[in-house]
Amino acid sequence: MKPSDYKKDCGLVFDFHRGTTHDGPGMRTTVFLKGCPLHCAWCHNPESIDPHPALQWTERECIGCRTCVNTCQFGAVQADEEGIQIRRDWCQECYQCAEKCPPGALKVVGTYWDVDSLAAEALKDSMFFEDFEGGVTVSGGEPILQYRFVTEFLKKIKEAGQNTALDTCGLGLREAYESVYPYVDTFLYDIKLMDKNEHIRYTGMSNQLILNNLIWLIQKAGGDPDKKIWIRTPLIPGATATEENIEKIGKFLKGEVLKGIERWELCAFNNVCKDKYRKMHLEWDYRDTPLMTEDNANRFLQIARKYVGEKAVLSGLTAKD
Amino acid sequence: MLENKSAFQVSERVERLWKRSTDLSKSGKRNVYVDNPEFLVYHWSGHSAGFSPATGEMALSDDERINLGDHNCRVDTGVPFPYADEMPSKVDGFEYSVTNWARDYAFFLDHSPAEVYPDERIVSEFHWQLDEARKFVYPEEVTELGFELRQLGAGGTSLAHTCPDLSIGLKKGWAGLLKDVKASLEKWKTYGNETRVEYLNAQVMVVEAIMRFIGRHADQAEKLAAEESEPQQKKLYLEVAANMRQIASGKPKTFEQAVQWIQVYEVVERINGHGNGYGRLDQLLIDFYRKDLEKGIITREEARELLAELYLKYGGNYFSFGGRDIKGKDATNEISWLGLEAYDMVGGYNHLGVMWHPDMDESYYHYACDVVTRHGCGVPTLVNYDVLRDSELYSGYRYEDAWNVSYSGCQWYCSVGSEYSDHDLNSFVLTAPMQRAMKRAEEEACGEFETFFSIYEEEVERTAEALAEFKNRVYKWQARVWPEMVTTLCMKDTIDKGLDITDIGGARNAYTSVNVLAVPNVVDSIYAIKKVIFEDKLYTMAQLNEAIANNWKGQEIFRQIMLKQEKFGNDEDHVDEIYQRVATNIRETLERQHNIKGFHFRASLFQYMGHTYAGPIIGATPDGRLAEEPIAHGCNPMHGRNHNGITATAKSLLKVPFRKYQGGSLQIELQPKFFDGKEQKGSYIEKFSRAYMKNGGVQINFNVIDLDQLKKAIDDPTNPEYSDIVVKVTGYSAHFVVMDREFQKEFVTRINYEAI
Asked: Can you tell which superkingdom this protein's organism belongs to (chain A) (predicted)?
């Protein structure tokens, strides 16, 4: 199916990761859905925010053959001294330029998938799920934006007997969460910043609904041993990685809330996605931010442990010193 | 200093032995050489008939030959065999005959020094191989055919990875073996079969020479003991003398003597110049160990230390552990544990294999995965016992032979004592028939992909027939040119039959296995041809042939289009279907070829290192590869083309049933940071390999290597910081800094799964 062939009941997917051990229990296949209501300053998947397919040009892979320029009937692909420029307002979304590009330097980010095809693709690694006690994770972007599709998709995965996880920022309609709830085994639920104003400052949105949804989710899952909730907090230098923020999240999580939570994962920041920003001709404040040191990350872990004990864990790459 | 990564204490004595052994490796005194790049690609050099002799009249200079690294148990002294000119074949005349060979062997062994070094409990080593003193070449009618065959893209050398059944020798001792030889000799005399009488007379010469060789070790140890004043060392010398005295005349009685017996057997056998495997160490030694334990003359610690000493002494052993017994039950025993623990203690370079199966003691497999991860040297190799056994059964082995299969080195396995494995060194360069098919498709104006594929199949058949003709010419001569007389002593039936295992009718099983080189490149090429030439018709076959002939010069757009097509190794069915077709075709084509020993040819989806040097020899390929680039390693995707990760690659490989092939390992090179944040490093390898093998995978070679460090080591090879790095090249390991530069360069380009 070509990316432009939009169909009802299809989901817009921008990436897959197979064999990942970072997106929930065990080894998993993660499906990344396109479109996100937040605009986090540190976003690792900037190509995921826009809820439509989009052309992307990778300078490194381009051989300068101008096949794309000659292919486009609408003049939307142009070449200048900076390389290939795409006039998005002129683009008719036929994506012939990407199809014809010899080295594949022009790509369409975002492909529509129907439920059955996507489930078949996501289940390709089933033979590894058993030994690794893994399964399929839906991430994004924010998958809850496409909740009707996600519901059907996760239902298929459950029918295939596999474990499911939903990686969500928490900003979605209650009915959306109601809809996916029966088919999710593990919720990977982001709490980025506790302070409402800071949340608005760094993500563009308030965290009110996010926190309300979490309380609702914990109550709904209350006592069901098959439903697991992992809280995830990215450790972003200068933004989320402050003692104050971790303290505040810790205070929010302790007590009654904590009973419903299996773990709180602090995810150390890395800048490996900086190339994505370059491809999109976007500036990124974090491009030169180094890996957090192990000591520093452990400091935050200790704060978290004050509130949630051993449920707090550290993930992601850190620097030795 | 030995960096001990395990919980097992190393005694000062073993640490000194470790130092001597690793210093030999690191200083290039255990290197194996081959004559030329053609040997690696076609497994036939057109020069010597085996590996490149290190010294002697067939030796090449350092500029000419290629160094495979410290893959040898031969200890280089830097000088040629001092009695080379006095060899009987040089004094009395060379003949292609078993008697002529055996006289040389006996003279050679009689003039090889019997050495005992301080600190050793396990002794004996060698400094020269027989091919440094006796001419190892086939007559012209064979070599002529070899050059013709190379033009068609194949070649072969018959020389390696048979597993003799050492339990035969351990039970009988040399005297017992000699008695069998003599009994058979009398029998064949009665029947009046002069050929077999000649063979068995030659065997008497061989066994008696070996017994003298062992006896001289006892003499030497006694002499050293007499001169030694230090009581501990004196005691060691006397112990060595007693052990050697015992095994020179009788059977090994203790665990220690059994280990010593194995070391001596390996030395007098390997001196022939091949690289055989020596079977299932845990099955060979368990009874000796139990008896000694009962008698209270050994401890677990001592047994472990003796095995460690065996590893250090030989310098990389092809032994296997685990698997099943004849009834299908888990065969893991105390020696399986001790064998791995011994490696864990000394680490580094070795070639041990663990034969997993679904009923294996879980804690043992857990330990094996822990060891391979912790040491990071690719040891042990992880293989699937059930697939090995089933592959033997599929080919036609009887169950009584097939159950006792053993991993026997690199990606090989062998039914212990019942198989002559002509399988390490036959090569089929699959790009050659493809390139001929492309030419023909152009000339015959072929317009359909299926027609093209039929032409390709015809060309594969042409090379396969030529290969069979060549191998049969070799087999006609083999038992006279280079019999494997010591190996033959520990085979089933051979002495009784009075036939060498290389002879027609000798070994119970004598299939010819062929390493198929460049499968992934041919798959990627054929898929790209299908899409671009036949379906989209963007270019013609004539344009493609021209572009290839000119190494894509001036055709970058065309090359990029071919490169952009889906590639093998990403679990994409369209292209993996071509993999299935290509693999099935080469297998069936080879199975249609028969050797004069009465067995068919088998396909192996692995070729151990031709990929490094093949580039310029085979030229550019339609998959967009430039001539100067290496080709894919075995049936692993071409470097950098598996963009869907490790699980997708594994699944692509599994789309062929490995039991129908003779091996095909999955290579995984991991960077240390892959494990960052993972709680138990070994458990990742354990789960991954178990899932892979449960689904039909035959072998996994794991490397845990620091890419940055390797790159630095290439630029600064004499820096002692890098001298201990051991990498698994394919099925064998070697110290990185002593490997040939081309291997080093290729090694660092392999795909690394640094983050998942």
From this structure: Bacteria
Query: What is the reported pLDDT for B225?
Result: 98
pLDDT digits (tens, 9 = 90+) for B225-253: 999 999 999 999 999 999 999 999 899 99
Could you tell me which residue, A286 or A1, shows the higher pLDDT? A286
What residues of A are in contact with residue B561 (Cβ under 8 Å)? 102
B177-190 as b/e: b if 16+ CB within 10 A: bbebbbebbeebee
Mean pLDDT value across residues B57-82? 87
**Whether residue B412 has pLDDT greater than 60:** yes
Residue at A42 is within a domain? yes
In this structure, the answer to whether residues A273 and A130 fall within a common structural domain is: yes
Q: Is residue A124 located within the same domain as residue A208?
A: yes
Element (DSSP H or E) covering residue A139: strand A135-140
Give the nearest partner residue to B756 out of A16, A21, A317, using CB atoms: A21
Between A177-186, A235-244, B435-444, B535-544, the lowest mean confidence (pLDDT) is in A235-244
User: Do A32 and A175 lie in a common domain?
Assistant: yes
Highest mean pLDDT among A119-128, B27-36, B672-681: A119-128
- Is pLDDT of B560 > 80? yes
Domain-ending residue, one of A88, A109, A130 = A109
Residue in B517, B422, B436 with CA at minimum distance from that of residue B472: B422
Cα separation, B588 vs A46, in Å, equals 50
pLDDT at A320 over 70: no
- Nearest residue of chain A to residue B696 (CA atoms): A127
Sign of torsion, CA B74 B80 B81 B87? positive
Of A18, A103, A104, the CB nearest to B647: A18
**pLDDT confidence tier of residue A309, bands split at 50, 70 and 90:** very high
Domain match, A134 and A35 both: yes
Share of chain A above pLDDT 70, in %: 97
Q: Which of A109, A131, A156 is the last residue of a domain?
A: A109
- Asked if residue A227 and residue A98 are part of one domain, the reply reads no
Residues of A in contact with B646 (CB under 8 A): 19
Query: What are the b/e assignments for B500-520, b being 16+ CB within 10 Å?
Result: bbbbbebbbbbbbbbbbbbbb
Per-residue burial over A125-148, b = 16 or more CB atoms within 10 Å of its CB, e = otherwise: bbbbbbbbebbbbbbbbbbbbbbe
Predicted ipTM beyond 0.85: yes
pTM of the model: 0.94
Residue B322, classed as helix, strand or coil, is: strand
Asked if A203 and A279 sit in the same domain, the reply is yes
Q: What is the mean pLDDT of residues B473-486?
A: 96
Residues pairing with B34 in the sheet:
B66
Residue A2 lies in a domain: no
Q: Is residue A321 situated within a structural domain?
A: no
Render pLDDT for A286-307 as a digit per residue (tens, 0 to 9).
Answer: 888 888 888 999 999 999 999 9
Q: CA angle, corner B7, sides to B9 and B693, nearest 5?
A: 130
The CATH number assigned to the domain holding A211 equals 3.20.20.70
Show the DSSP H helices in B444-509 as ranges. 449-481, 485-489, 494-497
Task: Please check whether residue A131 touches B, CB under 8 A.
Answer: yes
- CA closest to A132 among chain B residues: B687
Are A102 and B557 a contacting pair at CB < 8 A?
A: yes
Q: Which chain A residues in 155-194 lie under 8 Å from chain B, judged by CB atoms? A: none
Note whether A194 and A237 are same-domain residues: yes
Gap from A127 CA to chain B (nearest CA, Å): 6
Determine, yes or no, domain membership for A3.
Answer: no
A120 vs B: CB within 8 A: no
- CATH number, domain containing residue A87: 3.30.70.20
How many independent structural domains does chain A possess? 2
Boundaries of domain holding A86: 54-109
Q: Are residues A18 and A98 in the same domain?
A: no
Q: For Cα atoms A102, A104, A107, give the angle at the middle one, nearest 5 degrees.
A: 135
